[in-house]
Design a protein that fits this description.
Order of helices and strands of chain B: EHEEEEEEEEEEEEE
Helix content of chain A: under 10%
CATH class of the largest domain in chain A: Mainly Beta
Distance between the termini of chain B: 33 Å
Distance between the termini of chain A: 44 Å
CATH superfamily of the largest domain in chain A: TonB-dependent receptor, beta-barrel domain
Oligomer: heterodimer
Structural class of chain B: mainly beta
Largest interface: A-B, 33 and 36 residues
Shape of chain B: globular
């Protein structure tokens, strides 16, 4: 901590000696929580504090206060959400103990595609033009359909405003991580436009110098976003939103093999909005394409291997919102989603069409009660059609106390990979085959004499692979203890079923296995989230958060209960039978997570600073004692703290930000690739406002 | 590699000595309980290529590794285990099965296999081995990245019928030379079996007491 104090001091000295304090001009208005409006929870604009759902908002102020460049950095500081390093170094999100493939990520209300083995890389998303991040925890398929099993994260980018405004910023971090942003905005009564450009690059780093591989390879990416809107008349408005992301990563596989990974992503949305009195109708036509290509060359520059992934989604959706005289709202929607994927290891180019319709009734039976009921129906050919109902309600005892309840159904359709994969590992010789192509591929392998033994009968592949599904419950209390203290407690339970796992379906004559996908696992996650917000005075506030989490595979739990799981401490010692209480739960889940944040603002000096400390208790990454389960005799990753600090000083046109991430310099080279040690950063922002 | 044999525990057949009834005139032999260290079971090929090479053969009666073409009970090659009974699976280098051996896997602790369930014995055949191959199917678990370690799955007891119809139970405890506590990929030599076994040398006796 001594070092931290020193750095902090240096920053302070630097600022106070170089800065002349401007007059008492209006500083950032203190964010009033009651005014926070969210769209994600209901697809209508609703005040956050009156919502029955377990929802939260990360404001642009908070983003600025953390000096985050990418979405993953913000998520990591949000209680109960952690980023998990998945295959290929991509960062996914874990929400209420559910894996990253079960959280739907939206940008401006539209889904982002391109999941590498199920994970959507949060580092793909720049936060440079974000207005707010809306988070809904709990199954939300009743509005969003596929993937919204654990919850939804909706990234709302800044809408263009009036006049000509803009900003340019540049920040540099340790590892030569450079983030440059340009925001330009022009608008009048009829026409509004904004242009955002972000360029992000880093040299990466290497935590283990003993091999040729780098922990994070050198990369660069850029994001461009153009938003246009035009008010045709007092009833019609047309909106256009274009976003492009490209990324190039150096790819070093060994001393002799190197190449590049490349991503090119486009999201285009065209909307027509019609507003008359109490009816708002909106047509969205959304197109997205995610293209990724990866190659490796040998020492002589000859191509060694190449793989690609090209996903397209096209989704028109019509939504109407009726507001009754009693201020109740009815939302109905209808749409069609067409998805296709062309990639390596597929024998065909699969596509999938789903028609969906939804409704929602949001009403107030009394002044103290708000209820939301709704449902969505998704009809598809490739998996069983889904009906996703929801019910939620809030009861306001008085202005200080309210009780919230929300329940809902969520699902995740089988991915194309789980249906159509035909992959054989070239060095090991094992194969992974998608559910829908098992019969064809196995029969072909039988004819070629490559199968020695069939373990799972091919008849099991006559039906469809079922969608993974979940039923979630959230029960919360919002309580304002006094004018300075808010407390929010939420208890959650997610019961999932039909989770898709891999199993061995046949043995090959080379001694290797053939794997395919199947529905089996039932997973249960439950726990509580506690948030408290304490305003010491108008300049200083403290936020405390705690999450308790239990995440179990119910079949594994049963195996422990039945005494079918054993362990041995050393090869020399006797094996013994494990008890139910010895089962730790799912991999990569921490039982306890905590956050402590302290924010300081000095409007007079136009200064703000924050210190955020995040805790994560021990978790297991692998089964280390070979019984195929995570039990208390396995090796765990130690629990740890990370601490980050930011200091912002504003001048007339210039904002200066400086800070330190991972002040405690915590590292676990073996287990945590995302912590590279202490990181320093410095950022300059020039505001073109009021030109 | 020579087999090192340790006599860790010799269970006296107390049951026989204290037996009141002299219904059996011939002297019963004691049940043998031993640990065998580092049976080397190399193989050629693998990782997708055809596997070949001789099996390391073990004989319960002598408690030793053997080169005999006929007097063996269990064969080891890499992670593959065969018994001296049944038919060839068609692998390269398989010895001829001349005996009436078989095997099954019991899920539990070594001391819980009190009586052999003769109905469960399976022999090797063209369709598969009595001890199935592959991680998680038979006796071992392969950790995959980042440790790449093959470990005997605790609670998997291999119950054998020997070539001449006697019974034995076996618990494999290590696949690495010297049975290190935490074997390391690239450091510790693999394909060295260390196992505990209990052998019932008396004809027709299905228990291990």
């Amino acid at each position: 901590m001594e070092k931290y104090n020193l750095h902090f001091f240096i920053i302070f000295v630097f600022l106070f000696t170089n800065v002349t304090t401007p007059n008492n001009t209006a500083f950032d208005s203190i964010e009033n929580k009651l005014d926070e409006v969210m769209i994600t929870a209901t697809k209508t604009k609703r005040v956050l504090s009156s919502l029955p759902l377990n929802a939260s908002i990360i404001t642009s102020d908070q983003i600025q206060n953390t000096n985050a460049n990418r979405l993953s950095e913000i998520i990591n500081e949000e209680l109960g959400l952690i980023t998990v390093d998945d295959f290929g170094g991509v960062k996914g999100i874990q929400m209420q103990g559910l894996d990253s493939q079960y959280t739907l990520i939206l940008i401006d209300n539209q889904p982002i595609v391109g999941r590498s083995a199920g994970t959507l890389d949060l580092d793909r998303i720049s936060v440079g033009n974000i207005q707010q991040i809306e988070i809904v925890r709990g199954a939300s398929s009743s509005l969003y359909g596929n993937e919204a099993l654990a919850g939804v994260i909706n990234i709302i980018t800044k809408d263009p405003g009036y006049g000509f405004t803009g900003s340019i910023s540049s920040s540099i971090k340790t590892h030569k991580t450079i983030d440059n942003n340009i925001n330009l905005n022009f608008g009048n009564d009829k026409f509004k436009s904004s242009l955002f450009y972000n360029h992000f690059s880093s040299d990466g780093y290497d935590l283990d110098a003993s091999d040729f591989l780098r922990t994070v390879n050198k990369f660069e990416n850029s994001t461009t976003q153009l938003k246009l809107s035009y008010l045709i008349n007092d009833k019609f408005e047309i909106k256009f939103n274009f976003r492009n992301f490209t990324q190039t990563i150096e790819n070093i596989a060994s001393s002799s093999l190197s190449g590049e990974s490349y991503i090119d992503e486009e999201n285009i949305n065209l909307s027509l909005v019609h507003q008359i009195e109490n009816i708002n109708t909106r047509l969205d036509i959304y197109f997205s394409n995610y293209f990724a290509d990866e190659y490796l060359n040998d020492e002589n520059g000859n191509l060694h291997s190449e793989s690609f992934f090209d996903q397209i989604i096209f989704k028109p959706e019509l939504k109407s919102e009726f507001r009754t005289k009693k201020n109740n709202t009815i939302v109905v929607g209808l749409g069609n989603k067409k998805e296709s994927l062309n990639r390596t290891y597929f024998d065909i180019k699969p596509s999938q069409n789903s028609i969906f319709t939804y409704f929602q009734y949001d009403f107030n039976p009394s002044e103290k009660i708000n209820l939301i009921i709704g449902s969505r129906f998704d009809n598809t050919e490739e998996y069983n059609s889904q009906l996703s109902p929801k019910f939620s309600g809030i009861y306001k005892f008085n202005k200080d106390l309210s009780l919230k309840f929300s329940s809902g159904y969520g699902f995740k359709a089988p991915e194309f990979r789980q249906l159509y994969f035909n992959f054989t590992n070239s060095t090991q010789g094992y194969s992974v085959i998608g559910f829908n192509v098992v019969q064809d591929v196995i029969n072909q392998l039988i004819n070629e004499g490559q199968i020695s033994n069939i373990i799972v009968s091919l008849d099991n592949f006559n039906d469809k692979l079922k969608a993974e599904s979940s039923f979630s419950l959230n029960l919360g209390i919002d309580y304002q203890l006094n004018s300075k203290t808010d407390i929010n407690l939420n208890v959650f339970n997610n019961s999932t079923q039909n989770l898709i796992d891999v199993q061995v379906i046949a043995n090959k004559t080379n001694g290797q296995n053939i794997f395919s996908y199947y529905n089996i696992n039932r997973v249960s996650t439950y726990g509580l989230e506690l948030n408290s917000d304490y305003e010491i005075n108008k300049d200083l506030s403290i936020l405390l958060g705690y999450q308790l989490l239990y995440a179990y595979d119910l079949d594994a739990q049963k195996a422990f209960e039945n005494g079918e799981v054993f362990a041995r401490l050393t090869p020399q010692s006797d094996a013994f039978r494990l008890k139910k209480s010895d089962y730790f739960g799912l991999y990569n889940r921490s039982r306890h997570m905590g956050s402590f944040k302290i924010n300081y603002k000095n409007p007079k000096k136009r200064l703000s600073s924050s210190l955020r400390i995040i805790y994560r208790s021990k978790y297991g990454l692998f089964d280390t004692n070979s019984n195929n389960y995570l039990d208390k005799y396995d090796q765990f990753v130690d629990g740890y703290f990370t601490a980050n600090t930011t200091l912002i000083k504003k001048f007339d046109k210039i904002d200066i930000t400086a800070g330190i991430e991972n002040i405690l310099n915590y590292k676990d080279v073996q287990n945590i690739s995302s912590l590279s040690g202490r990181i320093y950063y410095f950022k300059l922002k020039y505001n073109l406002n009021q030109l | 590699m020579k087999t090192i044999k340790f006599l860790t525990l010799l269970l006296m057949t107390v049951g026989i000595l204290s037996c009141d009834d002299d219904d059996n005139s011939s002297v019963m032999q004691s049940v043998v309980s031993e640990t065998v260290l580092d049976i080397h079971a190399p193989q050629e090929g693998g990782q997708g290529a055809p596997i070949s090479g001789e099996f390391a053969k073990f004989d319960f009666q002598s408690g030793l590794q053997t080169d005999s073409e006929t007097d063996w009970d269990v064969g080891f090659r890499g992670t593959t285990i065969i018994v001296n009974g049944g038919a060839s699976m068609g692998m390269d280098g398989e010895p001829e099965r001349t005996g009436e051996g078989g095997a099954y896997i019991f899920n539990g602790l070594m001391q819980e296999v009190i009586d052999v369930d003769t109905a469960l014995f399976v022999q090797d055949s063209a369709e598969g081995l009595a001890i199935p191959t592959g991680s998680g199917n038979g006796w071992y678990t392969y950790s995959g990245p980042p440790t790449y370690i093959i470990s005997p799955t605790p609670g998997k007891i291999l119950v054998f019928k020997t070539r001449d119809g006697k019974y034995a139970k076996m618990e494999i405890v290590s696949y690495y030379q010297g049975a290190p506590e935490t074997p390391q990929y690239g450091v510790d030599e693999s394909r060295y079996y260390t196992f505990n076994y209990v052998y019932q040398p008396n004809d027709g006796v299905t228990n291990f007491e």
